[in-house]
Amino acid sequence: MLLDTAIWNLEALITYDKAYPDSASKDFKTMKSYYTLTLDANNMVTEAEVQQVYNLMLDTLNYQLSLFNDDVKFAVFSDVELIEVVGNTAHIMALNGYGSGFIYGLYWPFIADDDWIWGTLSGPLAGKCDGTEIGVSDGSDELSWRLNNPSAQPSTWKYTDIETVAVHFMNCTYNEPPQLPRVFSSLDGNHCMENEELTFFLEAAHWIIYDYNLLYNDSGWPIVIEDGEGARPEGKNFISIEIIDAFEYAYSRNFHHYHITYGIPTGIIPD
Predict the structure, then answer these.
(1) How far apart are CA 233 and CA 241, in angstroms?
(2) Of 153, 156, 158, 211, which has the maximum CB count within 10 A?
């Protein structure tokens, strides 16, 4: 294949396979890596060598990700460029952008005394773990309020093709060990969600809301969350989330049931 085509394919493949350009993070950093491609007499590159360089780029990307200590870390983009051609050797550079760290500043933080009962199946809102704030709020309300009111508010849009995606603990786990659920569930009907646990599920909900869902691997389920994959339909923006307090009889578990609404923005609503 042509050299320009080879470079384009390398950038497109690694961006499609590994990058999350729409995801947000606390920190951002770029790293460079260098590779070579051998040209034949017609200035063409073999597909086998392009594949070999692609595998090297994947190894480099995974190594560079391992240098970040944050639990949240991902590639944002990969920009592959030709530096120069010397003889029959093309020297190329990959500039990878990485996001790391959850944007705690995006949402009102859970502080030391933000310990709330998970929710309630009936009656008033369950309040804090210390018995205060009954009827005022509870764990699910605290999460949904933050997710619906980020500090960086998007523009006010009109939306078409609105759809609501349901997510709960049975179809939303991390695939890597220890395979923790990304959505709250507990056998305890009076479970206290301490501020650290609420922060964990706030972070997980952010991923669920804003990362795209790949339909091909859902195996007939309404949604199956793969590692690093969320609920967001292709081409749609987040509108709102409702968190319903629910009970699953087969497993005898109390859980949060997310109803996340998305749509295609069509224009700003006039004031």
Answers:
(1) 14
(2) 211
What tens digit of pLDDT does each residue of 119-128 get?
Answer: 999 889 999 9
Q: Which amino acid is at 238?
A: F
Residue identified by tokens 């009907």 is 189
**DSSP classification of residue 156:** P
pTM: 0.60
Task: Give the integer Cα–Cα distance in Å for 79 and 98.
Answer: 12
**CA-CA distance, 204 to 88, in Å (whole number)?**
49
**For the segment 127-155, what is each residue's pLDDT rounded down to a tens digit?**
999 999 999 999 999 999 999 888 655 55
With 0-12 / 13-18 / 19 or more C-beta atoms within 10 angstroms meaning exposed / middle / buried, residue 235 is: exposed
The helix/strand/coil state of 164 is strand
Which amino acid is residue 202, in one-letter code? L
Question: What CA–CA distance (Å, rounded) separates 90 from 44?
Answer: 11
Q: How far apart are CA 159 and CA 137, in angstroms?
A: 30
